[in-house]
User: Fold Delta-aminolevulinic acid dehydratase from Halalkalibacter alkaliphilus.
Amino acid sequence: MKDLSFRRHRRLRQSASVRSMVRETHLHKEDFIYPIFVTEGANEKNEVPSMPGVYQWSLDLVDTEVNEVVELGIPAIIVFGVPNSKDDVGSSAFHDQGIVQKAIRQIKENHPDLTVIADTCLCQFTDHGHCGVIEEGKVLNDRTLDLLAKTAVSQAEAGADIIAPSNMMDGFVAAIRHGLDSAGYTDIPIMSYAVKYSSAFYGPFRDAAHSSPKFGDRKTYQMDPANRLEAIREAESDMEEGADFLIVKPALSYLDVIREVKDFSGYPVVAYNVSGEYSMVKAASQNGWINEKEIVLEKLTSMKRAGADLILTYHAKDAVRWLQINKKGEK
Assistant:
């Protein structure tokens, strides 16, 4: 053994202090975007059965949730609406008194420094549950674009800081950028769901947002999970059309795609740690099968390491608390 020559990597793992010194990837509270579901009515705080700890909030109670987010130092939220009324074109998505518009105005009035992102889609607002106009069982791409642009403008008028279109129609970023610019909102950024897969991980979200399609599926407009190069084409199109951020959704099964989109684009990339990823961790934790804190921080770190600049996650509040505990423990 005396004559052996080999590298001793363990030298840099000998203590918590040394490990911290050489740590390559760090999570910060500023990395997180927290999703909030707002619903019609009063005195409504409805826990989503498939998403423990996640609630639908009526406007008279939502400030309780938003105040907690602000106190934790999370810089941004994304607002999803659960309306009372739906129709074939999702008209409550772009109504000036729609649930999302009312929530944005209220939240911005109470917390002007909080970055409020508006999810811009039609599926929660249509009676058929698809993300666009339907004719003879098909989603019509170009007719949907006008409605998406109207929705984005109405959200900007309500005070949204960022528009996040999630519908995956061809040309949706171009249509929304044109609509915003024409309405005088040239400074409002677009956080595009540029790479959105047709994933089995969305089930709990559809429970929360009441957005399951009433027929068929979304495979004609969301991406095949088997495709990698298509993600680059989608991201490139959105960049050309005026996107300012690129979302990859889901995150955990698509870390390779996050890295490729980041390397290709150089744009701010957002990993969407989706509902199914959240719920699996919660279910395993409740059964005592895993250490929730360690699992969550590990998977969020993996998204950051893969190239995500921001992480949209239902774990955000817990993650910030755990990071604060870890930081205190290091002192």
Remarks:
- The CA atoms of residues 285 and 292 lie 6 Å apart.
- The chain is about 40% helix and 20% strand.
